[in-house]
Structures are given as C-alpha cells and as structure tokens.
Write a structure and sequence with these properties.
This protein is an alpha/beta fold. It contains 6 helices and 9 strands; from the N terminus they run βαββαβαβαββββαα.
Length: 247
C-alpha cells in the first residue's frame, strides 16, 4: 500500500491482482507520481474481495489468464463489488480481464474473440463524444494485447476504442473505463509474459497473423511503448478526475 503524505485524507484506490505476473505496472507508477494512495488486493494469494467499496476512492482490476465465466470463488464477489461501486459512484477501471469483469457486472456478455490476439496492434478511437473526452485528439496508437476472449458492450456504454482483430477494445460508462487492451505494460512485464508464449498456441511454429512472436514484440516495443504511455496518461488522468475524495 502506498500512502503519500499529501493525500493521507484520501481513501486508497484498490488494485486487484489476479495473477502474479499481471500486477499494476505503469498504472501504479502513474498513481505514485500523482501522489494517490493505493492498496494491492492479491486475489492470487488468497486475499478476499472486500464486501463493500466504501473504504476506497476507486477500484482497479488487472488482467489474468482465467475467464470471467470460470467457476472461481472470487468472481461473483468481484462482480457484486463492481455493481456496488457503480451504484455508489466509485470509479472502476479494468484492464483486459478487468475490463471483462466490469462489462459482465453491468450486463455485458463475455465470449471468445474471433482470433487470439497477442502482441502489439493498432487500436483506433471511435467517432464519439466520449472518445474525445477520454482521449483528446488521439486517433490511433499501438496497444499491447494478450487475450482470447472479449466483452460485449453493456447497456448504456459508449464504445471508445476498436482494432482490426477485436472490435470492442474499450468502453466507458460515466466515470468507469473498461479496456480489452493492456495500456499498463512495462518492459519487464512484456518479457515475463513471453516466457509462456508457446503455451498460448496450438502450433507455435505457425502463429496466426493476430499473434506476434516474442522477437517481433520486443523489436516493436522500443517505439510502441513510449507512445502507448502517452495514451495511458490520457486515460488514467481522465479516470482519476472521478475519484471519490474525502474532505
């Protein structure tokens, strides 16, 4: 837990980690730089899902190799917590699996994506007022992807990002943001994930066009990662504007 001096009166942001290698990454760096307190809830280590969002100014859900449709003991409590947070006006942000949790909690359907998407891929902003509010004049950028499922948009959601291999890359509902892509990535995370790259494919020697090899990812990372960070800054800055603050 980080609790900078300046924001001691502010409730922390809960960050839910579902897998040891899928931590908060650049999101934590962003929060630390803005002196915003946060608390890690390690679901992968058996930490329980809080019964209420009342102790937090916002909720952040990270990625994970599981499906939100799996029968895991923490999924239903997490969905309930998200619904409580939305009802109470506590902002929720989700990365990949986290975006799917947010979508499912609000009535969206989670299903297989037409193809598995791994590596760097261009995502584009939709022509909606909400995309403009969250992304400014950004039109497209290379985002990082690692998923085989995707979310349908919940009722009332505004679609703000799409890509060639996955139509629904991000949505917003008021102060809440759900993403299929991973804008939180660091170089270390990318390298660690690629240690298990071959296990993701039925034929690693012949990956589909939607899947980049580790070598391709690392080459592209040098130019793509700094640009993605700029977009992450836009999204995260807009999201923290909605945090519930104490007096």
């Amino acid at each position: 837990m980080r609790l900078p001096q300046k924001t001691k009166s502010m409730k922390p942001i809960a960050i839910f980690r579902h897998s040891p290698t899928e931590g908060p990454g650049y999101f934590a760096t962003f929060l630390d730089r803005h002196r915003l307190p946060w608390q890690l809830i390690a679901i992968d280590e058996g930490n329980p899902v809080p019964a209420s969002p009342d102790a937090f100014s916002g909720l952040c859900f990270m990625g994970g190799p599981m499906s939100v449709n799996d029968d895991l003991p923490w999924i239903l409590p997490a969905l309930d917590l998200i619904r409580q947070a939305v009802a109470a006006g506590v902002p929720v942000i989700g990365h990949c699996l986290g975006g799917q949790l947010l979508a499912k909690a609000l009535g969206g359907v989670i299903s297989s994506n037409p193809v598995k998407e791994i590596g760097w891929g261009t995502v584009s902003a939709t022509r909606t007022p909400e995309a403009r509010q969250w992304l400014g004049d950004m039109q497209d950028f290379d985002a990082f992807h690692w998923h085989g499922e995707t979310f349908g948009l919940p009722q009332g959601a505004a679609h703000i990002l799409s890509s060639a291999y996955c139509s629904n890359q991000a949505f917003v509902i008021g102060p809440h943001l759900g993403m299929q892509c991973h804008v939180e990535m660091t170089e270390d995370m990318i390298r660690r994930w690629n240690e298990g790259w071959a296990k993701e494919l039925t034929d690693p020697d012949h990956p589909p066009l939607s899947v980049q090899t580790p070598a391709q990812q690392l080459v592209r990372m040098q130019s793509a990662l700094p640009v993605m960070r700029q977009t992450a800054e836009k999204l995260y800055t807009r999201w923290i504007d909605g945090l519930k603050r104490t007096s």
